[in-house]
Specification:
The protein has about 290 residues and is an alpha/beta fold. It folds into 2 domains: about 80 residues, Leucine Dehydrogenase, chain A, domain 1 (Rossmann fold, 3-Layer(aba) Sandwich); about 130 residues, 3-Layer(aba) Sandwich (Rossmann fold). It is about 40% helix and about 15% strand. It is built from 10 helices and 11 strands. Helix 7 links the parallel strand 5 and strand 6. Helix 1 packs parallel to helix 10. The protein is globular. Pathway: One-carbon metabolism; tetrahydrofolate interconversion.
């Protein structure tokens, strides 16, 4: 068996084209969607992510504001800037690129963003809303995974779904979204005993643990849908410098029924759903 490849690039292009149409309609009615992105420090990886987000905004004709603040920016200065953006009617979404320098409290920063502009879906109000099924915004990465599964024709009702990873950004919200879709969900993590026992039961397997090629083909149920959220850079060997996921693609593709590649799978969908949330924020603002 060779798995069907779930192409996040192609699907994200379709979604971004729809976003551009919605943004143009809002602009024509007097509200141009706007996204503010704040980057603190000089992380090369974060700079790439931010650049991709700004480029996506430009392509969708979404107004973007980019604040690149030095690594020694004080927490007070960052919070003050967020409050300014909260009050700016031209900005409908605010994103602070994580991680932040260690002297800044990430949770405090997230909680300072107005919930109605929290297009990352990380604010406690949005996290609580997701728990009860009524979020203002869904976190972009798990939201993108759900769109990929929908596009793949995955049947969630009654399916066994296993998530490897329990982060607040992916693992936990992903579990809630899958449960709301009717799946029976198991969350695994670094202390899970006999991880392969759980992963082999999965009709839908989501790997979001941040360990290169941790999930191998012999840990996958034949015919399962495998979604690889991880993005890691190989440090040694002939492939040093290349990107890989949390799934060993070479062995997994021979067992799975469908699988996302890395890169080109979940990553483009994350940006697409960020744009979806931003336009939705602008639509609510416009009434």
């Amino acid at each position: 068996m060779t798995a069907r490849i779930l192409d996040g690039i192609a699907l994200s292009r379709t979604i971004r084209a729809e976003v551009a149409e919605r943004a143009a309609a809002l602009t024509a009615r007097g509200t141009r969607p706007g996204l503010a992105v704040i980057l603190v420090g000089d992380s090369a990886a974060s700079a790439v992510y931010v650049r991709n987000k700004i480029r996506a905004c430009t392509e969708a004709d979404i107004h973007s504001v980019f604040d690149h603040m030095p690594a020694d920016t004080t927490e007070a200065d960052l919070l003050a800037r967020i409050r300014e953006l909260n009050a700016d009617p031209a900005v409908h979404g605010i994103l602070v690129q994580l991680p932040l320098p260690p002297h800044i409290d990430e949770r405090l920063v997230i909680e300072t963003i107005a919930p109605a502009k929290d297009v990352d879906g990380f604010h406690l109000q949005n996290a609580g809303g997701l728990l009860t099924g009524t979020p203002l915004f869904r976190p972009c990465t798990p939201y993108g995974v759900m769109k990929l599964l929908e596009h793949a024709g995955a049947r969630l009702d009654g399916a066994e779904a296993v998530i490897v990873g329990r982060s607040n950004i992916v693992g936990k919200p992903q579990a809630l979204m899958l449960m709301q879709g009717g799946a029976t969900v198991t969350i695994c993590h670094s202390r899970t005993r006999d991880l392969a026992f759980h992963t082999r039961r999965a009709d839908i397997l989501v790997a979001a643990v941040g360990r290169p090629k941790m999930i191998t083909g012999d840990m996958i149920k034949p015919g399962a849908i495998v979604v690889d959220v991880g993005i890691n850079r190989i440090e040694e060997g002939p492939d040093a410098g290349k990107l890989c996921g949390d799934v060993d693609f070479a062995s997994a593709v021979e067992v799975a029924g469908a699988i996302t590649p890395v890169p080109g799978g979940v990553g483009p969908m994350t940006i697409a759903m960020l744009l979806v949330n931003t336009v939705e924020a602008a639509r609510r603002f416009a009434g």
